Amino acid sequence: MKVLIIGYGSIGERHARILDSHGHEVACVTRNPKCSFTTYIDVAKGITEFQPELIIISNRTIDHFDTMNEVAATGFSKRILIEKPIFNSVPPTLSRTTDNVFTAYNLRFHPMVQRTADLLQGKTIHSARFHVGQYLPDWRPGTDYTTCYSAHKSQGGGVLRDLSHELDLALWLMGPWQRVTALGGHFSSLQIDSDDVFSMLLECDRCHAVSIHMDYLNRVPRRGFEINAEELSIHADFISGHLEINADRETYRPERDVTYEAQIQAMTSDNVSNQCTFEEGLAVLKLIEAAEKSATEKKWIKAS
Fold first, then answer.
1. How many domains, the chain?
2. 94 DSSP assignment
3. Structural domain range at position 296
4. Average pLDDT over residues 30-37
């Protein structure tokens, strides 16, 4: 399959490498001199000349919406995968169809998440807690954390957007959110202007008590979730690779690229059942904005 990648930063490079290793033909829209694939500096020209069958938008979050419009203006109607979060803010109502657009929440494809989704089929869920945290200066060794997009709200940085995989997992497993209350902001001494801590409590369709915590501060990386359902307790730890199901423990230590490869496989096949849709990606963004509003106004915010 011919795949055009728009944006060749770290995630664009990962997509290109994986696609190339699986025999797909790759081209990129980028000015990055380190890109070893066929390159274009213009989206329209890249689409016209390369004739891709799939487009991946992996440039800056703040550029996603305009880039999607550029792609649409060419008449491209095949599949589009947009890196998470789908946009920096909820856009005006879209008049065009988005059935061909998906959001790159690849954590859905982690074996522990897939196992959990299977276990929760038909179960009544009583409570759930999702958490993620890692010290921002440790994220990208050898680089100054104050210069990365994560440090700057204007560039789409902050834990709510950076670590929104947890928000997608919560909504995918617990169902659409109905209301949320949150506390968060820039609480630490990190030299950033984006939010470094957020904690929220949600009511979802399948579970009326869902909590989510995310931060840029944890010196020991943490990522996982705990779910209590009818006759079932699940504890997942992505760092250790352990999934506890009641009194039993299963171990999952997939290679780093496994979830990205599964996501690409879904996008290049006929089965996109586990892929995050455009509407689901937009629901995550609406939750982000509701959490920000709740933290500012100190009240519950209902889904619109």
1. 2
2. P
3. 107-254+275-302
4. 96
